[in-house]
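Morning. Coffee machine broken again, so started the prediction first thing and wrote up yesterday's gels while waiting. Chain of 377 residues, entered below exactly as on the submission form.
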Amino acid sequence: MADNSVNRRKFLYGTGAVGITGLAGCAGGDGGDGSDGSDGGDGEDGGDGMDGDDGEDGSDGGSQDLSLRVGTSAGGTQDVGLAVERAVSQESDTLEYSTIESPGYIGTIRRMANNQFNAGITDNNSLSKALDDRGAFEEQGVERIPQYGFYAFPYSIYVIARDGTGIETFDDLAGANVYPAEPGYSTRATTLDVWSQEPTADVYEEMNIQNMGVGDAPGAMEEGNIDASIAYGTPGVRYTGFVQEIASRIDVHYVEPTDALRESAESYAGAGTGTTSYDDWSIAGTDIGTDEVFHWNLEVNYTFNPEANPDAVYELCRVVDEHNDVVNEGEEQFNDFESTADMLSSARSNIPVHRGAVQYYRDNDAWDDNLTEGDSA
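Came back before lunch.
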């Protein structure tokens, strides 16, 4: 999709499914537990003794076995997963849904590849890197890549600067101490992927990138050791904790995007873009000197192993579509779909869609022929 203005809960962004075939750049990173946009790329390969041979992997198991074991990171991602689980328990008589704790988005991809669960919540950038053996998957790839199901929510990202730094636009970040979140966070990886490509690479190469935990960032910014930081969360809902703390303790302002930044963000296939009214998404009630923010989005999706029972995937799609309000009542961070087609807003032509989801979209006249149906196992 093109750059979209939104208010409160309407934040379905994407660069569209048509003609997107790959990504540029990679960020890697390890650490992170999956909360607040962490990718959980902690080097774990999922080899903890669970090989799926005990029947607990939730794989097909026959037409009567409508069960999904969903790998879910900590933090906001887990809140979304639990809200979906509650909606399934209330609105489905056939689907058994269970939430399984997983070490972040990259960890979820690795554990799904090892058949520890047959569904999981992960992001487009990590999926694309797994497909191309880049970033965290360059030296340790996976044999099986999860297939797309539906868009869950975005982490939308922009830049704020400490007052008094003289930083007004993205170009002013050259030579500044910039904090793009904690190493290992997918929000950081996606941000650095956007910045490090043309035409913003020259500014990025002159930044002094700061590496520290999110718990230390507000203090470092207050002490003057960080000049600018990314701000992120889900538009119309909330910001992540350390961003709220920064805005509560320090006078900050919006860093205006340049045309080059917009071009980098809009051309990077691993992220979506959008604009949001600041009145609908303010940080701790503070004035940062703008009426709207332009952001790039880490797009978080429900994904499924090829072996996942297509009837189970179909039923989950039905529940989150027909009972979207029930999920939102449990956790408003989950996308507010205006139509079934909105469930495909973050779909990419290079990431196959699970056949159970494909059937649901076809039955509801929402399928996009520019997408690819995934193979069964």
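The longest strand covers residues 147-162. Going to sketch it on the whiteboard this afternoon.
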